[in-house]
Amino acid sequence: MARRASSPVSKAVASAQAVDRGPVSVNAQVYEALKAQILSGQLRPGVKLIHQELAERLSVSRTPVRESLERLYQEGFVTRIARRGFFVAEIDEDEARELYELREALELFALERAIARGLSVADLRRLDGLNTRYRQLLRDDRTRERMVVDRDWHLSLAAAANNRVLMRMLEAVFDRLILKIRVDGYRTVRGQEALNEHLAMTQALREENWTSARKLLRAHIRGARRRLIGHLSELAD
User: Confidence band (pLDDT; 50, 70, 90) for 175?
Assistant: First the structure.
């Protein structure tokens, strides 16, 4: 008997099933596929999510699509507008401020824990590698990927705190920021500024200049908040 070809859904979630977790329902596959497309930018902030189009793209019926969109709505990945339908969620200025306030508190706490534990040569090498990757993406003007590497730099630093609960909370904050930002007009000059700050923080950590590292991290996060809010204002105009 000929082997049946994999559907687009199974391909989209293949990586999520790399670890054996037993059978995965169609609803779960569709949910993971749609979430992955939102996080990767394939479904961009503000895009309308039409049930029939998504069902055809994923080779499934409309039912798992509808249930997946409801779940994504509950989790804040999409918005629902009466009589208009579902849209990929966008961030507003109030949410941006709140997320950055939480991010600042979590990252500064993580830095204190990392300082107390001590940063290893391997920790610093990972930060250097991410700085190099960020520079490459900045040169190629790949904004969405650059934002992901920026996130990875901060998560790599926070990982030195060795606190899994803190990491999950910080990852959730970054996910909500990245997936909801429209990158249109997010200038590369702002990316260069962020890279310079990453390099300065990495050097302060290497020199064990903890006072400078704290000040640089706080200023970096607050600067990122100002840049994002300015970006949102430009989009609104």
Answer: confident
pLDDT at 16 over 80: no
Task: Give the model confidence (pLDDT) of 191-221 as tens digits.
Answer: 889 999 999 999 999 999 999 999 999 999 9
Final residue before a domain boundary, out of 64, 88, 112: 88
Contact indicator for 170, 106 with CB cutoff of 8 Å: yes
Q: What CATH number is given to the structural domain containing 25? A: 1.10.10.10
The rounded distance, in Å, linking the Cα atoms of 68 and 74 is 10
Clarify whether residues 28 and 97 are in a common domain. no
As for how many domains the chain has, the answer is 2
Q: 135 and 164: one domain?
A: yes
- Find the distance separating the first CA and the last CA of the chain, reported in whole Å: 60
DSSP conformation letters of 27-43: HHHHHHHHHHHHHHTSS
Which DSSP symbol is given to 18?
S
How far, in Å, are 49, 119, 205 from residue 157 at the CA level?
36, 9, 10
The DSSP letter of residue 186 is -
The model's pTM is 0.71
